[in-house]
Structure formats: structure tokens, C-alpha cells
Automatic annotation (TrEMBL), chains A, B, C:
Coarse class of the protein's main subcellular location: membrane
Keywords noted in UniProt: Cell membrane, Membrane, Transmembrane, Transmembrane helix
Cellular component terms per the entry's GO annotation: plasma membrane
Highest classification ranks of the organism: unclassified sequences, metagenomes, ecological metagenomes
Organism: freshwater metagenome
Subcellular location: Cell membrane
Membrane topology, as annotated: Multi-pass membrane protein
Matching InterPro entries: Gly_transporter
Name the UniProt record assigns to this protein: Unannotated protein
Domain (Glycine transporter) ranges: 6-79, 90-162
Membrane-spanning residues: 6-24, 31-51, 57-77, 113-135, 171-192
Pfam families (alphabetical): Gly_transporter
Length: 201, 201, 201
């Protein structure tokens, strides 16, 4: 199994878990939950592949779909778990780190420029959560309060910079992912965020 | 004319009719109606083609656009028809069946795996209606109450299963489409739907 | 630099400026502003390229990203400029004209049919503004009141018609763009718009 494949499976499973729970909390039916879980978990990687001229990975690999189905079933079975807020946030942060690395990794394998690799890392990581929130009519956290985009961007830049410095691929991915997790965790813990724009209106 | 082409034209026309009517009921102007009709009718097939590495069919075939224009003109001409709810639902169900079959059919022609064929059938069928509802700021029926996704999924699985059993392609498509229509009609008639998720919140 | 490249850079910069200002007026943070500016400015051209089987231009060309970053910085620096409504509208109209021409131009270079060229021109021009409004939860101007889609369509058709009449490419693009600007300006000035659909409900 390649690094990319492992990263894709991990991020798909965690994003599907988070997506299924968000959909369940909005009282969607089982079909809606499965749909939101699928969109939340594969749309980022799908965009990444389409932009690079490849078929989406769920067309090729049955394990992607299996991991979404597993996540949905888990969500429906463990429905009585109520105090899940903190675990969800941890999973979402983990998925964000892994998806960022998978985007950079594929861009690198496809020989894009470094700035395209950073952008593709961010797109892979943030698209699913954004669509999840739009579909569930939750205010998109990407656009407010949170530091999802910033964390992903800093981590992707770290991964790319380490590769430029000839650090080994797997180690660079791990360090880049750690930067994503650290940036998001620190920013949430200290309530750091980018400033808002205050116009004189 | 190939099976795929006939299916695409039929689903485009019916989805455009439904989309134009939904947009008209939200009091959009003529341009908005044409826009929603176009999105509702071609976005599913466009996604299907892009995922399979092909150009969207409306780039290649002028009949797709012509059928959308015809649907919009029909909607504007027959504006006094008020009791259209039931006919719309029948058309939407028919379009759903045809689009599901077109997605499976193209996936099959492009030699995807069976699970990808099922997924592409569902994506082809449900995308347009979902975007239509988001654009018109109607609550997406896909996520609530209705059984659009389930009907499409069951029909796509039927088509794929029949093909695996070496039933002829055209017959398999007709039977698969009939399953879509039957599943949706029965579920609406008996008010069946997938259960909702009741958490203990 | 090719005609297409110049058109893409111009439309990206102006759409990024407009997008950043709309996001700033909705009090998004700096990250949200950059994100909306990026989506508003590149999504039309990205769809255009994906539909034609090409990689998005921002994967290949670092100047696209640079022009978005410049637009965001300009917006943040000149935050005290309050009476910007009229300038924004002028910029948005200019971006619309340029993006329409870029869509037609690329379609022409890729040897599509004339109706596909017109459609790709409109898609390139209107997608960014539509997504910008959806993300910022502003009512999409494309669907109401304004004549963005109509102006783009008329200009794209003009460009295509002039090319069919063997007018030189650059001249055709300038005239087509002028038609977009004229159509939108006249329609706003005289408050012209397409009629709404009045059903008997």
C-alpha cells in the first residue's frame, strides 16, 4: 500500500464519521446521513483528482466506499453516545492533517509546481467540510471563527518545504501533518483566529 | 442513436421541465428559470462524464441544449397550468429512472467496476435535483422526507445485477428503470421513508 | 503572452477584488476573505478547463495566485474606502466581459462547436460570482434582478458570430467584451431586466 492510499483511507474514514454525526445531529434520515458522510469524505480528494486529470479514487478503489459504509454504520449503532463533541473535533483535526498531506503527496507524484501542491493540499482537506456544512445548513465553519484553512495551509507549506530540503517523503508527511494538528489545536485552545475585517460602515 | 444518447436526451428534457417549473414557482426571472433548468438537467451527467474523464455531453451534442430550451419555452407558454404538482412528480420520477440508467450505462461502457457503476448511476440521477433545490433555496428533498437517493440506488443495483446475470443491456436498463419508478412510487404512496436518527440530545 | 493568458489574469484580478470586498462586507476573517476571493476569481475558469479536459490554470501559472494575493492585500490595506459600490460594479462588469471572452477563446482553441463556445463563455463568467454569493449567503444576483447571465450570453454570441464572419480574433474579443459591458450598463441604467414568471398561484 502506498503512502497516498493509506492517507486517503484514513481521511475518508474520519471525515465520514464526522460528516455522519453532523448529519445525524440535524435529524436527517439514514439516507441523508450516508449521503452527507460520502460528500464530506470524498469530495476533497475527488476535486484533487479531477484537477490533476485523474479519475476519483472511489471509482477505482472499493475500500473507500467500504470505509464510508463502516463509518455510517458505526454512527447509527453508537447513537446513544452523546458527549462526542470533543472526540469529533479531534477526529476532524486528524482528518484535516491526513487529507492535506494526501493532496500534497498526489500533486508531487503528478509533478506539479510547489504552489499547486500547497493549494491542492488545502483543497483536498477543506472541501468536504465546507460542503458538509452547506448541505446541513450549518454556517460553514471554514468561513468563520475556525482556523481550518490556515492550519491546512501551514501544514501543506511545511510538507512542501521539507521536500524541497530533501527530507524523506514519509517523514515530511508526518511532520507536515503534525504542524496541521498543532496549528489547529493551539489556535482553538488559545482562541486564536485571523482578524476580521472592520470596515467603517 | 445509442441507448445512452436516448437516455440522456429523455432525462435532460424531463429534468429541465421540472427545474424550470420549480424556478418559476420561486418567481425567478426568465434568465433564472433557464439557468436553473440547465443546471437541474445537465449537472448530473456532467459530473458523470468529468469523473470518467470525458467532456460533458452538452459540449458535443447540440440536442441537449435544444431540449433544455424547448423545456423552458414550454414552461413559459403553459404558465396558466396550476395543478401541475402530480405531473411534475411523475416527470421527476421518470427522469430519475432514466438518468440512473444512463449513469450505469456509461460507467459500463467505460469499463468501471460494478460499485463505481452503481455510484455513478446515483450521482447522475440525484445531482441535478439537489443543485436545483439549493439554487432555489428550497430545502433539498434529497436530504429529507423523500426517497430519491434510495430509489436510484436500488434501481442502479438492479441494472448492474442483471448485467452480471447476462441479461441483455436494453432489457436490463428497462427493468432497472422500472425498479426506480416502483420504489419511489411505492414509498411516496405508503409514506415510507428511511428512519431518522434520534439521538438522546 | 497569449490573448487567453491576458484575459485570465485580468478577470482573475478583478473578480478577486470584488470577491474580497463582498466577503469583507460580510465580516469574514482574513482567511475567509482570501478564500472567497480565490473561489470568486478562479472557479469559472477552473470549470471551463475541467470541461475541456485541461488542468485548471492556477495549477500551471503562478501569476494567477499572485494576482489573487495582490487583490486581497489591496482590499485589506484600503479598508477605509467606504463608497466603493459604484467602482465594484464597474470592476465586476469588466471582469464579466473579460471572463466571457476567455471562455469563448479557449473553447475556440480547443475546437469545440459554436454553441459549446458560447456556453463555456457564460460558465467562465458567471460561476465565480454565483459561488461567491452562495458562500457569503447573499442572495445570488445571478438569479434575481440583474442581467449578468444575459449580458455574458449576448457578448459570447457576438464574439462567436464575429469569428464566423472571419473578423480577426483580438478584434472580435474586444467587440464581444464591449457588448457585455454595454448590455449590462444599459440594463442597469434603465432598470431593464428579464420578466418574472407570474403564475396564478
Amino acid at each position: 500500500m502506498s503512502l497516498l492510499h493509506i492517507l486517503d483511507l484514513l481521511s475518508t474514514f474520519t471525515f465520514a464519521l464526522v460528516g455522519a454525526r453532523v448529519a445525524a445531529d440535524k435529524a436527517l434520515d439514514y439516507g441523508g446521513i450516508a449521503f452527507v458522510a460520502a460528500i464530506a469524505s470524498v469530495s476533497g480528494g475527488t476535486l484533487r483528482n479531477v484537477f490533476l486529470g485523474l479519475r476519483p479514487i472511489w471509482i477505482i478503489d472499493p475500500w473507500i466506499i467500504s470505509s464510508i459504509i463502516a463509518a455510517v454504520i458505526l454512527t447509527l449503532v453508537f447513537r446513544r453516545v452523546t458527549h462526542i463533541g470533543r472526540s469529533l473535533l479531534i477526529m476532524d483535526t486528524f482528518g484535516l492533517a491526513v487529507a492535506t498531506m494526501s493532496g500534497v503527496q498526489l500533486a508531487r507524484e503528478m509533478n506539479t509546481t510547489w504552489f499547486a501542491a500547497i493549494l491542492l493540499g488545502v483543497i483536498t482537506a477543506v472541501t468536504g467540510g465546507l460542503l458538509r456544512d452547506v448541505l446541513c445548513q450549518v454556517e460553514p465553519v471554514l468561513l468563520h471563527r475556525e482556523t481550518i484553512g490556515t492550519s491546512s495551509l501551514v501544514g501543506a507549506a511545511t510538507f512542501v518545504a521539507l521536500l524541497q530540503l530533501n527530507v524523506a517523503g514519509n517523514l515530511s508527511a508526518i511532520l507536515g501533518g503534525a504542524v496541521v494538528v498543532a496549528t489547529r489545536t493551539i489556535s482553538i485552545h488559545f482562541d486564536l483566529h485571523l482578524p476580521r475585517f472592520n470596515s467603517q460602515r
